[in-house]
Design goal:
CATH topology of the largest domain in chain A: Dehydroquinate synthase-like, alpha domain
Helix content of chain A: 40-55%
Number of helices of chain A: 13
Structural class of chain A: alpha/beta
Largest sheet of chain A: 7 strands, mixed
CATH superfamily of the largest domain in chain A: Dehydroquinate synthase-like - alpha domain
Number of domains of chain A: 2
Order of helices and strands of chain A: EEHEHEHEHEHEEEHHHHHHHEEH
CATH architecture of the largest domain in chain A: Up-down Bundle
Oligomer: homodimer
Strand order of the largest sheet of chain A: 1-2-9-6-5-3-4
Low-confidence stretches of chain A: none
Radius of gyration of chain A: 20 Å
Chain lengths: 358, 358
């Protein structure tokens, strides 16, 4: 087992990475606040792993609430069912909320923990690669609003994250690829070494080789933990983690939540960011082709849906990265080096949006 | 104008107290984050004061969202209308949310500010005495759930609080009394001097004498600011501010939100706390009579509704102060000195509950 520490002062916490961690009760139990536990999971993950997790809480007052699976259920209404479960079970401020699922479950359970009685302890057990390498680390929690993704939420840190590589065996191939998109992102924004490793090991990763998965999760979490520790409230560095995300959120919103997976939308968004970076003279055509090839090998889309540049820009305008009406984007100065900028000719953005759709 | 500072490190903020502060645009403008403002108010307060407040934001992009008045609307659903307004107006992370109203508006606007895009700046303009002396100070925000009051929320500090005594001229007498209940509370839990002042000046306060109001607000906020600064996350001292509140919340929930005003329920709850304290031998019968008399002079109830001890205890059991099934209460060691305890004979609580209802 690998243990990484996310250094956030008194809110610091460990990330445990390895195979078959769910069955090791002592890992999760040492992070409980009291004798009350509420596991939040969904109807896909619960039948597979809930029994194993509940067994770790034997002798405690442990309950579970099961939500429907899918980004379209990441709503205030579903969040309220978690509050209702906590209240019906008379959970006190000493309850520990445990997220068992992908990014949606992690975001919702974390936000519920942040808000229940104004904050109770929280543990992340991410069961998708995407959640393990990205959404479970960094403390972003929240739900969607019909007018924008992730618009309602809180910064709230877990007590620990348990990333069990064995649970990835049951992951849909499309979900695996969506997770790899975020691994590629870390390579592109700040880790040329990881990028080179991915170019050598992509087929092993797609085949779920355990060592390859562990390496990818460890280095992704390390990158994210470094960025988050440096900039917990996302004033500056943390924004770089959003490479491809302003484009990606627009794709997700424009197509309706759940049609495109988050990682798929980010993959297409990263190609858009690379394309625009090339138009600004920062990347070569070869660099862009290298990005597209790596994403293709990960079985990810490299083009967005045919929403049209005008609609895409409208959707991008509600993104959180917009300040005073200017669209700020994460672009690439080079492969392995990202910057945030609103200094680009809008006509180039139009060209990119027209070029990078099917 | 009096300026009090709430000392919370980098989250410190001033409370301004005085007459006709709403018309002084420079006070509120110096605390704005950017050029976007969203005022959250209700349909009782907005017709009276919204124009004055909006005039202070001339030249900026200022919008308003008006909620229905009343504790029964302090819900996740109403909170969502604030998010919808923020998103429809394309408000960015630089928006400042301004609460213009009583405690319900302050709690909801503050929680909306805490959650919108994971946190935007927030200013409190409380328009009831209760909100000026209590709920606007300390950073507690949130909404109710059908199964419990204030069960969903966040600790979130405003950039400033503007307590304008002139707006109290339009307050309903019942609302004024509800605010005085909390002023009396500060006297009972930690400020014998304020308690003595109240016994000398209660009629002036009820008659809305400006000097008396300023004195009451200043000393209430000073007490609350001291407690909050010492214990921002309510692990210990802050709990003392809940004198009468566990009883009071049970009354409010049992009668249905909005039937009893919060301050009225707290008044009856403080008599219960005093009565139980006397049964424990901490207060004399005269002390209890002194509490009841002061509340009566403030035109507040001194008895709870006839819910019965069993139902009251059931309602009290969902309160946030409950740990591992024990009901913890704020009681009085003496007038001017409160303690938190779960060390009492449950039979005495039954006697109190039977005694202190109509």
């Amino acid at each position: 087992m690998i243990t990484l520490d996310v250094a956030l002062g008194e809110r610091s916490y460990p990330i445990y990475i390895g195979a078959d961690l769910l069955g090791q009760a002592e890992i999760v139990r040492r992070h409980l606040a009291g004798r009350e536990v509420m596991v939040v999971s969904n109807d896909i993950v619960a039948p597979l792993y809930l029994d194993t997790v509940m067994a770790a809480f034997e002798g405690l007052r442990a309950e579970a609430v099961i939500l429907p699976d899918g980004e379209e259920y990441k709503t205030l209404a579903q969040l309220n069912t978690v509050f209702t479960a906590l209240l019906e079970k008379r959970c006190s401020r000493q309850v520990t909320v445990v997220a068992l699922g992908g990014g949606v479950i992690g975001d919702m359970a974390g936000f519920a923990a942040a808000c229940y009685q104004r904050g109770v302890p929280f543990i992340q057990i991410p069961t998708t690669l995407l959640a393990q390498v990205d959404s479970s680390v960094g403390g972003k929690t929240g739900v969607n609003h019909p007018l924008g993704k992730n618009m309602i939420g809180a910064f709230y840190q877990p007590r620990c994250v348990i990333a069990d590589t064995a649970v990835l065996d049951t992951l849909e191939p499309r979900q695996l690829s969506a997770g790899i998109a975020e691994v590629i992102k870390y390579g592109l924004i700040r880790d040329g070494e990881l990028l080179a490793w991915l170019e050598e090991n992509m087929e092993a990763l797609v085949a779920r080789d355990r060592d390859a998965l562990s390496h990818a999760i460890e280095h992704s979490c390390r990158n994210k933990a470094e960025v988050v520790a440096a900039d917990e409230l996302e004033h500056c560095q943390r924004a770089l983690l959003n490479l491809g995300h302003t484009f990606g959120h627009a794709i997700e919103t424009g197509m309706g939540y759940g049609r495109w997976l988050h990682g798929e939308a980010v993959a297409a968004g990263m190609v858009m960011a690379a394309d625009l970076s090339a138009r600004l003279g920062w990347l070569s055509g070869d660099d862009v082709a290298r990005v597209e090839k790596l994403l293709s090998r990960a079985k990810l889309p490299t083009r967005g849906p045919a929403l049209g540049p005008a609609r895409m820009k409208e959707l991008m305008a509600v993104d959180k990265k917009v300040q005073d009406g200017c669209i700020r984007l994460v672009l690439l100065r080079a492969l392995g080096e990202a910057v945030v900028t609103d200094q680009f000719d809008p006509a180039l953005l139009d060209q990119t949006l027209a070029q990078c759709q099917v």
